[in-house]
Each structure stands twice: as C-alpha cells, then as structure tokens.
Amino acid sequence: MTSGFDLNDRGALLAAALQEYADPYPTDEPGAPTLTATIEDGYTLRLQSGQLTGPTHPVADEMTSSRKAHADGNGTYGHRGQTWGRRV
User: Fold this and answer.
1) What is the pLDDT of residue 85?
2) 28 located within any domain
3) Domain-embedded: residue 2
4) How distant, in Å, are the alpha carbons of 38, 46, 60, 74, 75 from that of 68?
5) Which residues have C-beta within 8 Å of that of residue 14, sequence separation ≥ 6?
C-alpha cells in the first residue's frame, strides 16, 4: 500500500532533502568529484564524498535495527526513538 506519491515523486523528495542537507556544508575542494544521481523526471542530486557520511550512518543504523527485529535476528528492536534528529 502506498500513498499518493509515485516513485519519481519519492525519489525527487529524497534527492531534494539530501541536497538541502548537504549544500550548506561543502566537504571537498571546489571541482572535486561528486556523486551525481538523476531522477527520471530530471531532478539531479550532486554530493561531495564527505557529504555522504552524515545521511549514511542513520540509514545503516536503521537497517541494523530492522534486521534485529525480524525473526532471524535477536528479537530486539533497537530503535533509539530518533530518526534524522526528529522524534518519531
């Protein structure tokens, strides 16, 4: 079951949020290589190497927590009550 968003809408929202997160904090020298991802509708995200670190950790932590909560895990859901600095 999904809400009214299609895949491109969700991808563009994610890309825009990541770009907004990263823009104020350049991590590499001007002209350094960037990760470039383009959503089908034409939204392009460009991130420097160091800008990938911040959003990577909470996603990896959430994946670990989810794996633990499933039957083949240890049965403990390790969610800390916060995701991306916001209470859930």
Assistant:
1) 42
2) yes
3) no
4) 33, 33, 13, 5, 6
5) none
Q: Is residue 30 in a domain?
A: yes
- Taking only the tens place, the pLDDT of each residue in 24-40 is 988 888 888 999 988 87
Q: How far apart are CA 82 and CA 32, in angstroms?
A: 33
pLDDT of residue 42 exceeding 80, the answer is: no
Give the range of the structural domain holding residue 61, as residue numbers without chain letter. 7-87
Distance of alpha carbon 32 from alpha carbon 48, whole angstroms: 7
Domain tally, the chain: 1
Around Cβ 67, how many Cβ atoms within 10 Å? 12
- Identity of residue 82: Q
Residue 29 covered by a domain: yes
